[in-house]
Design brief:
With about 280 residues, this protein is an alpha/beta fold. It has helices at about 5-10, 60-65, 65-75, 95-115, 130-145, 160-175, 215-225, 240-255; strands spanning about 20, 40, 50-55, 80-85, 115-125, 150, 190-195, 210, 260. Helix 4 (about 95-115) packs antiparallel against helix 7 (about 215-225) and helix 5 (about 130-145) packs across helix 6 (about 160-175). It binds zinc ion (ZN). The site of zinc ion has 7 residues, from helix 2 and helix 6.
Amino acid sequence: MDDSSRRDFLKDLGLGAAAFSAAAPSPQTSRLPGQPPSGESAAPSSSPRSIMAIAAHPGDAFFAMGAAVALEVHRGGQGVFLSLSLGEKGSARIAPAQYGRLQREASERAAHSLGAQAEFLSYLDGEIPVSEEAKLAVGDSIRRHRPAVIVTHWRGSWHKDHQACYSIVNDAVFYAGLPALERPQPPHDVRTILFADNWEDANGFSPDTYLDISPVFDRWTEACALFPMWRGENGFRYNDYYTSLATARGCLSGFKYAVALMSPPEQLTRRVQAL
Ligand SMILES: [Zn+2]
């Protein structure tokens, strides 16, 4: 393996990425012989920030994005989970109307247990439209909650609702910040957008940020366990997958548990006057 392919290999493993800790000023990894330098580690920012998870379905919001929300709330910030649908068609055994109610109830209980809010739009599961109405509705929610950070779906998904959510959020952030667009709430600029590590959105997902979720790992998994689907009842073992993933991402970043996040390319641009 030559130097450049080795670097690519390590980069694919996430060893070239930045690691952010809310619990400790630096991760517990040491550089291995021959290992390329990794990105910077950052101590917690001085003030907690408000954060919104915007997902196609409640399971995505809590399983793939929830730990990041839980952490920010733990630090004293505000957290909102916005699901564009109830994910009501997710069960092969329970009729959509009843399953939608269960999903809503689980979301509200899970959000409450994390000290956050749960909100929903009323689009049908599997039929979320990439429409101006949806973009404006999400944009209005962003203006109302005024998050500094949004975590949402990466576009590289095989699920059409997840792809739709990515597109909707992208334009909703634009609408939220557009001063000339008159809406009920004043405009709001979102400072940071991050894409979540979701098993259904893995196509081209390349994390650049590792977030230490060790302080909230237990309460996050307890919140997820309020959803029956967490235990694999709908065919995918979410509990095994996301707890193992948090362990694996933690190994790569030097934390006990971590989530990996991906930034839009333009967010990674650095403007410096010295290297
Ligand atoms: Zn989903």
